[in-house]
Amino acid sequence: MDYQNRAGSKFGGGGVASHSATSADRRERLRKLALETIDLDKDPYFFRNHLGSFECRLCLTVHQNDGSYLAHTQGKKHQTNLARRAAREQKEGKGEIDPNTGLPVGVMGAGFAALGLGAPRRNLVKIGRPGYKITKVRDPITKQQGLLFQLQYPELGAGVTPKWQVMSAFTQRVEEPDRNFQYLLVAAEPYETCAFKIPARELDKREDRQFSFWSPDSKDYWIQIMFMTEREERFNAAPGLTGRR
């Protein structure tokens, strides 16, 4: 940086930089250094929240832009936490981090275990997406609204059963999180995993309301979910009251 016009400096001599200018120059140098060594798309600790800010899942810090996050990754706190994480994983016999889950390879997180996405990835050739049909349903007595999903897996091998789960909008990394929606995921290898965007309403998880059925003969997979009524949602949210499950 050119400090020759600062008070007390000689022309052409550079001068004395202020503390804020030195800090800004240091952050910029760290950002450029990080850009050469870090790919944010592959950083398991990098997360962009619904407010547009950037979070470090390792250090639990929030940053207003990617430059601030990159400078943070080169700082003492982040490097120290990385060393502690690596030492703990080596002690526990765990290896590298899976970029798809943000967890050590071989560790199954609660959100991925149901779909088998937390297990070590296998080199399978995807054969495309299954055919599907979505039907709106409504209980004539309780007036509950719901959705019935029918997916077709004609090439699915014997002994393989599709799995499904509901994921929060803030868990996925495909698009900007929207608190008004959640995602219903269906997985069955070697088909691609399907995600259906549904309203972020509380689900009625009773067996006669929510169920799934796999027909190995017709290769059809059925999923039914029912949303609780507005009255039931208010009842469950009332303090001191226990909603039905």
UniProtKB/TrEMBL annotation:
Pfam families: SF3A2, zf-met. Residues 54-84 form the Matrin-type domain. One of its GO terms (molecular function) is nucleic acid binding. It is found in: Nucleus. Residues 1-25 are annotated as: Disordered. GO terms for biological process: spliceosomal complex assembly. InterPro entries: Matrin/U1-C_Znf_C2H2 (IPR000690), Matrin/U1-like-C_Znf_C2H2 (IPR003604), SF3A2 (IPR052092), SF3A2_dom (IPR031781), Znf_C2H2_sf (IPR036236), Znf_C2H2_type (IPR013087). The keyword Zinc applies. The keyword Nucleotide-binding does not apply. Keywords: Metal-binding, mRNA processing, mRNA splicing, Nucleus, Spliceosome, Zinc, Zinc-finger. GO terms for cellular component: catalytic step 2 spliceosome; U2 snRNP; U2-type prespliceosome. Belongs to the SF3A2 family. PANTHER family: SPLICING FACTOR 3A SUBUNIT 2 (PTHR23205:SF0). This is Matrin-type domain-containing protein. It comes from Lasiosphaeria miniovina.
